[in-house]
Amino acid sequence: MIGRRNFLALGAAAPVVAALDPALRAAPSVAASVPNVKTRSVGKVEIAFPSPIPKPNGLQATSEGLWIIHQDEANSASLVSYTDGKIIRSFPTETDKSSGLTYHDGTLWIGSTYSREIVHCDATTGKTIEKMFTPGAGVIYQMVGDVPGRRSPLAKAPEQRRTLAPGETVGGFVQGRIMGAKATGTGAHGQEWRDGKLWMAVPPARTIFCLDPQTWVVQKRFDSVGNRPHGIGWEGKYLWCTDSNLNAFFKHDTDTGEVVEKIQLAETDPLPHGMSIWQDTMWYCDDVGVICRMKIA
């Protein structure tokens, strides 16, 4: 399986697809169909600290500290200090290119993106408790009106595209385009826990799901705004969802799925991936290796 660094080396994936199909670049932007909602004025984005382990791709704020899931070789989960990012504890997980996590009652729920599973593990030892399938998992499809894939302004220039080695795969729409029916797809990204239910954003389905973790039955679902939903976080009864390609966050009424507000990042801000909210501060990570924060109230 191809690593994240080599995936970027393919030319940032989604922009390559746009180049392969110029007609799509002329399609109306998906941003034009975003509801005409209020854009919230927020504090300046700050880089709080470098990620203590490379490739952070999911966050969960807790009273004990900030959890980070990484796409390093061990798919490490780390609990770190809000102040300086110092590791409180860290352990490898039985996941594959993880992209989100949440905490409840001494355990973690982690989106194992490339195995399309939700891995439930002990938050002290990392020992796996159970593995479940991801609703809506599959190959990310491209749709007329999608914006081109966005790269982090902090990332190095992509290397020249190279030929895939036998057996290698790449994520998202490019994976499906290259591999056809053999493409294995991806799973969940951001996750959150609320009132005994597990919430998750699943990019291949462009959907946010709410599941009962006891029965694994979907309780409700609603559409994400864009084609690359990532981290999610609670603000009162509302759920914010990151979209990495739109470089923005969208606040959903979870009863209806309606978008009621948004936060738009600047072109020069780090690219949002994992996200969580703690004490009126939105924390997010850019997978090039930084943990960011901004005041939202």
**Main β-sheet, spatial strand arrangement:** 1-18-17-16-15
Could you give me the name of the CATH homologous superfamily?
TolB, C-terminal domain
Q: The CATH topology, please?
A: Neuraminidase
Q: Profile the largest sheet.
A: 5 strands, mixed
Please provide the ordered H/E string of secondary-structure elements: HHHEEEEEEEEEEHEEEEEEEEEEE
Head-to-tail CA distance between termini: 42 Å
Number of strands: 21
Structural class of the secondary elements?
mainly beta
Range of helix content: under 10%
Shape by Cα distribution: globular
What's the overall average pLDDT, rounded?
88
Estimated radius of gyration: 18 Å
* Weakly predicted, low-confidence segments: 1-30
Please tell me about this protein's structure.
With 297 residues, this protein is mainly β. It has a single domain, classed as Neuraminidase. The protein is 8% helix and 38% strand. It has 4 helices and 21 strands. It has helices at residues 4-9, 14-20, 22-25, 172-179, and strands spanning 38-39, 46-50, 56-61, 66-70, 77-80, 87-91, 101-104, 107-112, 117-122, 128-133, 191-194, 197-202, 207-212, 217-223, 229-235, 238-243, 248-253, 259-264, 275-278, 281-286, 290-295. The strands form 5 sheets. A 5-stranded mixed β-sheet has the order 1-18-17-16-15, with no helix packed on it. Strands 2-21-20-19 form a 4-stranded antiparallel β-sheet, with no helix packed on it. Strands 3-4-5-6 form a 4-stranded antiparallel β-sheet, with no helix packed on it. It starts with a helix and ends with a strand. Residues 1-30 have low confidence and may be disordered.
